[in-house]
Design goal:
By secondary structure, this protein is α/β, with parallel strands linked by helices. The strands form 5 sheets. Strands 8-13-12-11-9-10 form a 6-stranded mixed β-sheet, with helices on both faces. It has a 6-stranded mixed β-sheet with strand order 16-21-20-19-17-18, sandwiched between helices. α12 runs parallel beside α14, α14 packs parallel to α15 and α18 packs parallel to α19.
Length: 506
């Protein structure tokens, strides 16, 4: 009796080499239908059409092809189960050893904005998921392949052992159920879009088991949800990325993305920016960011918005850093950084790719919100004081506002000439955050600007800023006591801008 393989694929990548090897090297008989059968036949590969095998024609324009007891009996039969064997013999159904199926491209179809509901409905696969589920359920006796990337592994198992072992079949089955889960979720999301019943699921594929989480007693795994992002980054050198490294790298990417198109450096410590600056060169930007808070920068994460050159790399090795992330790196810089063998150097070509949503787990559930990544819009801002900001102050206010939304609340940023001078993060009251930022800035606060992620509930923050020499302020506005803050700024003769948008970052 020939070995049977059922092949029905939408994505035909690699299917001809696979089918050719199955037939000519291992003696498989191929069952297929529709476009897959045509593709194989045109390549000269012998195929038994499913309709001929089942003696049941395809109907409903091809909507029903493989939904037949002769197909599913062959897939679901337990070869070590006497009753199953009796049923197969009585009905003349041979077992099917291999199922190769991938699904209609529903996700790709609905990703196109012009797709109609009717077009989307036609891309909901019925037979494919049924075949996959059946084969995956019976992985003890059947192999299921759902992705062209799996073909080489399967063929290697045939070459080595004549058939894949139970462990490989079980792993392929797990991958199959995950594929079905993702597929069904995409359909449910599309059909319930805009309704209160729309489900939300975070589904990831294990990318890397991490040594531990935030602390050594916590277990952690890095999951991949989409192609690209950090899983596509290249680690040039250094130890494996840790849980905390990845959190800090994502924070660095978010701040750096605010300044793409400019030469900027970002230094992150415990997910908060401790130094951000623009410059005429990567070296100048880095040195200015470092000068913003050189103490906190020790053991930090550095991101550049431009490729890393040798001069900047030479400056970076002067202090202890955990990670450097850049969109590119010259060979001379790689050589210099190699002197710090534990320094993790990461090349991330695209700083723009960001998660569209943020998820927080709660006891018994979770929260989902859209990410706070909308571009800064100065056109929506309003000067609420008698004094108007100068062009230089406007530039610094935009700079400070971009940084401020990446600082944990309550957040205050003091900046001058596109360089952070003091950052107050994560405080329980706003005047406390301002006091920290201003103390860090010291005498450099004279003539600088101050940004706040939330409104001022009292005039005390403005009064404190004025005492320190702050020359302009930007904040969301919206407090019942806004007039008090405006009056304090007017008494000092400094401009204050209301953005109309707050940027809490808890």
């Amino acid at each position: 009796m020939p070995r049977l393989a059922l092949i029905s694929v939408s994505d035909k990548t690699g299917i001809l080499p696979l089918a050719t090897t199955l037939v000519h090297r291992y003696g498989f008989q191929i069952l297929s239908s529709g476009g897959t059968a045509t593709t194989l036949q045109q390549a000269g590969i012998p195929v038994t059409p499913v309709s001929e095998y089942t003696q049941a024609p395809e109907i409903l324009g091809g909507r029903v092809k493989t939904l037949h007891p002769r197909i599913h009996g062959g897939i679901l039969a337990r070869l070590d189960h006497p009753q199953d064997q009796t049923d197969l013999e009585r009905l003349g159904i041979p077992p099917i050893e291999l199922v190769v199926v991938n699904l209609y491209p529903f996700e790709a179809t609905v990703a196109q904005p012009e797709t109609t509901l009717a077009q989307a409905i036609e891309q909901i696969d019925i037979g494919g998921p049924t075949l996959i589920r059946a084969a995956a359920k019976n992985y003890a006796h059947v192999t299921v392949l759902t992705d062209p990337d799996q073909y080489p592994t399967y063929l290697a198992a045939l070459e080595a052992c004549g058939s894949p072992d139970l462990a490989l079949r079980a792993e392929l089955a797990r991958q199959a159920f995950v594929r079905i889960l993702r597929y069904d979720y995409a359909i449910a999301r599309y059909l319930t879009a805009g309704s209160d019943q729309q489900p939300w699921m975070l589904l990831g594929i294990p990318h890397q088991r991490l040594r531990y989480g935030e602390n050594p007693h916590q277990r952690a795994t890095w999951y991949e949800t989409d192609a690209g992002g950090w899983t596509a980054a290249q680690v040039i050198q250094g130890k494996a990325l840790s849980y905390n490294n990845l959190l800090d790298l994502e924070a660095a990417r978010g701040v750096a993305a605010e300044f793409l198109g400019e030469t900027a450096a970002v230094i992150i410590k415990h997910t908060n920016p401790c130094g951000v600056a623009c410059g005429s060169s990567p070296l100048e930007a880095y040195r200015r960011a470092l000068a913003g808070d050189p103490v906190s920068a020790f053991g930090g994460i550095v991101a550049l918005t431009v490729p890393l050159d040798a001069e900047t790399a030479a400056a970076m090795v002067e202090i202890f850093l955990e990670c450097v992330v850049v969109p590119g790196i010259v060979p001379e810089a790689e050589v210099l950084l190699a002197a710090k063998k534990n320094l993790r150097v990461v090349v991330l070509p695209d700083f723009r790719q960001a998660p569209p949503e943020q998820v927080r787990l709660l006891a018994g559930g979770f929260l989902v919100q859209t990410a706070d990544t909308a571009p800064v819009d100065p056109q929506a801002w309003r000067v609420v004081t008698q004094a108007q900001p100068t062009p230089e102050q406007e530039r610094d206010l935009r700079f400070a506002w971009k940084v401020c939304r990446h600082v944990k609340s309550n957040a205050i940023v003091v900046a001058h000439q596109q360089q952070t001078l003091g950052i107050g993060a994560g405080q329980m009251n706003r005047v406390g955050a301002a006091r920290l930022a201003l103390e860090q800035a010291g005498s450099r606060a004279q003539g600088a600007v101050l940004a706040s992620d939330g409104f001022f509930p009292f005039a005390d923050t403005v009064e404190l800023a004025v005492q320190a020499g702050i020359a302009a302020i930007i904040q969301p506005g919206g407090s019942l006591k806004d007039p008090d803050s405006i009056a304090a700024a007017d008494r000092a003769g400094i401009p204050m801008i209301f953005t109309g948008r707050r940027h809490f970052c808890h």
